[in-house]
Amino acid sequence: MLDLGSISKMVIVTRKERRQGYTSSPLGAIYYTADDQERSVFPGEEPLYRHLKDYYPTWKQQEAERERVRREQAKLERLVVHMEQQREAATSGARTVPTQLAQASAQERPRTTLAAALEDFATHGLANRARASANTRTSYLLDLRQWAAWVSTQITYVDEITTESFTRYQVEMETRGLKLSTRHRKAASLRVFAHFLIRHAGLDPQVLDAIVLHEIPEKDPQPLKEAQYKALLFEAGQVKSQGKPEVRARARSMALRNVAILQVFLQTGIRLSELTALTLDNLDLPPERKSGKAEGGSLRVTRKGGDEKLLALNSKAVEAIRAYQKVRPQSEVRSVFLARTGEPLTNRAVQKMFKAIARRAGVPWSHVHTLRATHVTYHLAHGTNIVEVQKNTGHRNLKTLQKYAGVVDEYYREAMEKNAL
């Protein structure tokens, strides 16, 4: 019979108490959850609860929200104190002592052209956004240069920017029929640039009210079915060239490259930019066997913000990469995947290659990111630990993977129907 006296009663501690260490009591170790909820566990489960904060999806979000509220309250308190001081000084007739910001704005600033401010932002402003990927930075500059070209007929200097400089541009984007997601991204780029101008060029902070960030409805992931991704792999490996032997050899090399690319996407779930950034030094493949199934290897990818992660590479991906390496064009370039010219393969080239294969495979609606969604859905549906899936995909928050819950449920229902007794 189970001895109820042997059950340890545990509560999960707050962050402050965790820093002070765990305490002991006759009931066992004492823990507290973020919402002060008690939990009863059996002996031996303590290590799981010690690391619960690492697996609890909303833990860090709650901590960040509380920290944000504390900062907002402190800012409001400072503002109230400053307003009271200003009111008292005005009532007493005393000379108001300007704040540091007021002193800076009171000084005569040299006029800064919009072109110079944009160049300064490209050189210094983006350098401070360490977590932004290279694609994000490129998109920022592209969006801002388009806005600068549009507004250049109306203004030349930063101090000429008004709320209409942004509102009219947003109306123009909507009139041109740009997608909601595109308008949202461009508005986000404008806000980042406006914050930079407020800090470094004395732009009026009120202009931020004119930049509207649209709420984008989140779409459910659309993973590929088993027959669909197998059709992609089949079409990617087809060599249809009937020319000279060297032409056929080149076509076969490209086919094996395409298969390897699709297998790396499907087996690892990495991003497009992470794939095109791979070099031969990032691969760790096991020695080739003369017979039998290949062993797994590893892959080092550079995530957003420059972080490097070591990912497992299963036998299917290893076989596909090794087959391509045997026919890979001779080149001094260290990139794993090369174009016909021997140059590194670009993101755009991979996208065009995939769309051509997808049309032949009968899934023209799919795109490169669909392979990433397929990897996540397949592994979650087959019981792979969600933390391991997060490690492969590079999602910073486990909550991001929750959007796959409905897709996985649908996968289960189809499997039950297909395998009905």
Explain how this protein is built.
The two termini are 39 Å apart. Helices cover 53% and strands 7% of the residues. The chain has 17 helices and 7 strands. The strands form 3 sheets. A 3-stranded antiparallel sheet has the order 5-6-7. A two-stranded antiparallel ribbon has the order 1-4. Strands 2-3 form a two-stranded antiparallel ribbon. Helix 7 packs across helix 9 and helix 8 packs antiparallel against helix 9. The chain has 3 domains: 53 residues, no CATH class; 107 residues, Orthogonal Bundle (DNA polymerase, domain 1); 193 residues, hpI Integrase, Chain A (Orthogonal Bundle), CATH 1.10.443.10. It is globular, with a radius of gyration of 28 Å. The longest helix has 34 residues. It has 421 residues and is mainly alpha-helical.
What brief labels describe this structure?
421 residues, mainly alpha, DNA polymerase, domain 1, hpI Integrase, Chain A, 3 domains, 3-stranded antiparallel sheet, 17 helices, 53% helix
CATH architecture label of the largest domain: Orthogonal Bundle
- C-alpha Rg (nearest Å): 28 Å
CATH class of the largest domain: Mainly Alpha
Shape: globular
As for the CATH topology of the largest domain, it is hpI Integrase, Chain A
Query: Could you list the spans in which at least 5 consecutive residues all have pLDDT below 50?
Result: 1-35, 38-58, 93-106
Short structural description:
This protein is mainly alpha-helical. The chain is about 55% helix and about 5% strand.
Q: What's the helix and strand layout?
A:
Blueprint lengths: L7 E4 L3 H6 L2 E3 L2 E3 L7 E4 L4 H5 L1 H4 L3 H34 L7 H7 L7 H12 L8 H18 L11 H13 L4 H21 L25 H11 L8 H24 L3 H5 L6 E2 L12 E6 L5 E6 L1 H13 L19 H15 L6 H14 L4 H8 L11 H14 L3
Antiparallel strand pairs: 1-4, 2-3, 5-6, 6-7
